Queue: 4 jobs
Job 1
Amino acid sequence: MAYDRYDWHCEGDFPADLPEENAGTHIGMFLAWVILRGLEGEFHQRESAEALEQLRKREITGRDFLFNMCDGKFWDEDLSEEGNAFAKFYYDGKGTYFEDFESVLSADLPSTYHVEDTWENFGRLCDVIDERYEEWKKMPPESAAKKKPWWQFWKRVDRGGSGAPRTMLMIRRKPHYVRCVVDKLSTTPEKQGACAQRFVIVRGAPDPP
C-alpha cells in the first residue's frame, strides 16, 4: 500500500518555479523521523543498510533517502509493524501530519512545497512528531486506529500565482489527495462531505470507498 508519492503532488498547484523533488520534502521528513526512531521496515534493514547509516549520521536527508532508495514513493513496506500502525493513524489515517508540517514549517511561505529540505527544519518538525507519537502510544487501541471519514480534508491559505489569498483544500481520497480552491468553506461536516464528493466526481476520480 502506498501512503504517498512525490508525483502525486507535481500537478495542480505545484509551483512552476520549484524543482519536482520539493514535492517529496514532506514525505522525506517523515521517513527521516521513522528511521531515526528505528521504525523502518525489514526491507530497508536488508537492502538499504548503508543509506540508513548515512541518514543516521545526517550525511543525507530523508528526502535523499526517499528518492535514492524508495524511488520517490512511500510504501507500507518502508515501515515496521509499529511504524505502519502509527503512520496509518498520523500520516494516512487521522492525518494531522500535514497540518503539523504546515503549521511548523510553511505558515509564512507561499506553499508547503517551498519548505527547505534541511536538518534544521527537520528538527523543528521532529519535536512535534515525537509528541504525536507519545500521545498515540498512550491511546486505547480503538482510538489509536480511528480514522476520519473518507472526505476529510485539511485546509490552508494559499496565495497562488496571482498573490490573492485562496483557501486550499486537501481532500483525502485514497490513494491520493485531491486539491481544490474554494471561495468559502462550509462549516458543517455534512456540507463539507457533500462538497468534497461533488468535487471528486467533477474531477472524474473513482467513487469513494
Job 2
Amino acid sequence: MSEEDSAIELDLEGFLRRLNSESPRARVVLTSGLLESLLRNAILLRLTKNRSSQELFGPNSRFALAELAKYAHALGMVSDLERQSIQMLSRIRNRISHNWDVSFEDAEIQKNAGNINLIDLVCEGSVSEHQKAFWRTDYLGTSLVEEFANRFSLAGPGIGIEVPHLSLIKIDVSASKKEFVREARS
C-alpha cells in the first residue's frame, strides 16, 4: 500500500470517528459532502488535466452530488442502482439542508429513504418509520463513502474501474452486521 493510499484510509477512519458524534441531520450533510469530493476527484482522474476539467469538476465546481453521480455513471464508475440511490440521498440532503425544521419524520424524507433500493434493512421488532428512514439514509451514506474511498483509490489515472459495483447492501440493525453484495461481472 502506498503512502497516498494510507492517507486516504486515515482520513476515512477519522471521518467515520467524527461522524459518530454528529446529529442525524449533520450525518447526512457530511456524508453527502464527502461523497461529492470522492466522486469529483475520481472523475478528475479520468479526464485530461487541463483548465476545463478543473473548472467543471475541481473544488469550485457547481455540480452537486446528483449531477456528479450522473457523470460518474456516464463514465461507468457507478452502476444504475448506485446512481439511483445517490439521487435519493441527494434529495434527502437537500430537504434537510434547506429546511431548518425538517426531520426524519417528514413524509417526503421517508418516501425518498424508502426508495433507496441499494439498502436491504433488516430490523427486529417494531421500528418507527422515521427511524427506518434515518437508518436507510445513514447506512447508504456511510457505506458509499467506505465503498467509493476504496474503489476509487484502487484505480489510478487512466485505469478503468474493475471493482464490481454494488447490487445490495444488507444491513442487520439488531446484529450490527453489514454485507456488501456485488454485481456479477462477465
Job 3
Amino acid sequence: MTVQEVSMLQVIRMKDSAKNAAEIAKYLNRTDSANVLYALRKLEKLGLIEKSPGPPRETTYQVTEQGREITDRYAAKRRDLLLSLIDRMSQSGSLFEGVNRTLWLMSGLYEQVARTVSVMSYLSDDTGQPTVLKLDEKARKTARAPRGQADAAPRTRKAAG
C-alpha cells in the first residue's frame, strides 16, 4: 500500500464513522476527486473498506474488519516509534532543555509583539493611520529612559473622530 492509501484508510476509520468521498478528500486536503475515487476503489478491491449502497453522491465508505486490523497495526507501530524518539530526546537532556527554553522564549516574544501591535491604533500619525515608526520611537525612548521615568510618563490617547 502507498502512503496515500494508508492515510486514506486512516481517515476513513477516523471516529469510526462512515464518510463520503468529498469528506475524505477534504480531510486529506485533496482536490483531485478522480484520483481519490480511484484510491477508494483500490482499497475496496483489497477488502479494506466497503461502500454503502445507494446513489453515487450519497455513497459512504467505512473500514472492514481487515482494514481495522491494518490501521490498528499502523497505530501500534507509530506509537512505538514515537515513544522511542521521545525516550531518546529525554536522554539528551541539556539539548532538549535548550530547545524547550528557546521555544518558550519565542512564544513569549510572539505574545509581546501581538500585544504591541494591538495598541498601534493609539499610536497613529496625522492621517490617523497606525504607524510602526511611532511605535518604534516610543520603544527607543522607553529603552533610553532611566528606570522609573518611562513608567512615570503621562499616557495619552488620541481622541476618536
Job 4
Amino acid sequence: MPEIIRVERFVPGAVREAYHFLGCNFRKRVSLQDSVRPASPPLRLAGRFCNTILVTLRGRLKQVGRASESTLTCSRRKNVRRFSWFAVSLVLCAGSLCAQTNGSLPKFGLGLKVSTLGAGIEAATAVSRKSNLRVGFNYFTYSDTFTKDGIAYDGKLNLQSFEVHYDQYLIGGFHISPGVLLYDDNRGMASAAVPSAQSFTLGGTTYYSSASSPVVGNGTLGFQYKTAPELLIGFGNLLPRSKRHFGFNFEFGAAYQGSPSVALNLTGSACTSPGVNCQSIASTPAIQSNVTAQQTKINGDLKVFKYYPVVSLAFGYKF
C-alpha cells in the first residue's frame, strides 16, 4: 500500500505553503530519499516570490472568511472566488516550476507582453520537449470621448484578465495554444450628456435636450462570461530549447467572452422641438421605449465582439 505523506516534506517554498494553505494530503509511492533536487538560485528566488504572494492571499482569504454568510455581500463572494482562482493558478504554476526534475528541459521563464488584452506579464514552464504551460496577467485602461447619435460620451475601458495556456509546438517555433481566461474583467463605463437645445436620436426618434433639465446619464459595457475559452496560434517560445536565454512569442487568435451587453440610463427632459413639449425621460413610457431601442441598437453593433480578437507580442528570459 502506498504511504500517505505530507507533501510539504518533499517540496520547497511556494508549493509547500500552497498545499499547507489548501490543507491537502499527497498520496504517492515515495521514500524519504525521493526529495526534490535543490533548486537553482533563480528558481529559489521565484519560489520565494510565489510563496510571498500565496501567504498574502492566505491571510486575505482568512480575513474575508471571518464574515458570516448573512453579512457576506455578493461583491465579497466574487472577490473570494477571484482570490481562490488566482491562488489555485499560482499553485499550478509553482508546482510545475518546482516539480521539474528533468535537467534537459527549461524550468522557468518570465516574459513581458503587449496585446489587445492589455499590457501583461507571464510565466512559463516546460511540460515536455514540445510543450509549455503558461500563466499570465493583463491590465490596461483607456479613456476617450466620442459622440454617437447626438449623445456625447466620456468613456473609460478597463481591461483586466488572468489567463492560462498550454502551448503545443508542431514545427519549430510554430505552436497552437488552447487556453482560458480564468478571470475576465474586461468592461467599460461612460457618462452621457446632451447640451441644452441640441438634437439627439433614440431608437430612430429625434429629440431635443431641454434647456431647464438637460439630458444626462451613464452607460456600462460588460461581457456575458467571466470565464472565457481562448485559442491562439503563434510563433516563438519563451523557453527556447537551446542555450539561448532570451525568447519571444507572437500570437493571434480569439477569446469567446459572449455577446457584449450595454446598459444605457438617461435622465432629464427631452423635447419634440427646442423648448416645446418637453417631457421627463424617466416618467415617459414612449421615451423609455426609445431608450431601450437605442440600447438594443448599440448591443447589435457590438455583437461581433463576442469573439474578442487577441493579438500579442511577448519578450522573455529563460532562467
